[in-house]
Amino acid sequence: MNTTFSTLTKSLVIFVIFDFFMFFVLEAIFWMKPFVYNMLLEMFNNPPKSLDFSMHALVLKKLFINQGFYNLFFAFGGLSGLYYLNKNKAVGYAFITLVCFSAVGAGIVLAITSKAYILAFLQAFPAAIALAKVYPLFKNELNKSN
Q1: 7-24 vs 117-145: helix axis angle to the nearest 10?
Q2: Pairwise CA distance, residues 119 & 59, whole Å
């Protein structure tokens, strides 16, 4: 079993953190830009044809700001994990495991509930690989402390 945090794994974790941060930027900062809401609403297969995209975006604005901040907090969790790897590996790996698990879950839900398959893949696949590599490191650190 590989018990090191490899460059590949670190790169994947950084990508997952960046992905969460970019969703924050899109959803909480740029949501009301027509390019953003047109692209995302089309991928989400919304709104009903009877409702204009700009009106639908306005209705969903506060929801997307909230969703964006969830993504920002997951990005902070991932950064905290990287920070704690130098202080307490078990804590660092715990943060990273949670963040990667959340990204996999969010990507699966996105794929099931929308047509945003590329976004779902970019969210879930790198996180799944990182999770598969980090979780054994987390378990190893827990076993060391017991």
Answers
A1: 130
A2: 23
- Asked if 104 and 129 count as a contact pair (C-beta separation under 8 A), the reply is no
Largest CA distance in the chain: 60
Residues in the chain, overall count: 146
Q: Which residues contact 39 (CB under 8 A, 6 or more apart)?
A: none
Token readout for 25 is: 């930027």
Helix axes 7-24, 53-84, angle to 10 degrees: 150
% of the chain beyond a pLDDT of 70: 94
CA separation for the pair 84, 87 (Å, rounded): 5
79-124: pLDDT as tens digits: 999 999 999 999 999 999 999 999 999 999 999 998 889 999 999 9
Residues 6+ apart with CB under 8 A from 142: 90
**Per the confidence metrics, is the pTM higher than 0.85?**
yes
Cβ neighbours of residue 76 under 8 Å, at least 6 residues apart?
A: none
Q: Residue 126: what residue type?
A: P
Are the C-beta atoms of residues 21 and 145 closer than 8 Å to each other?
Answer: no
pLDDT for 129 beyond 70: yes
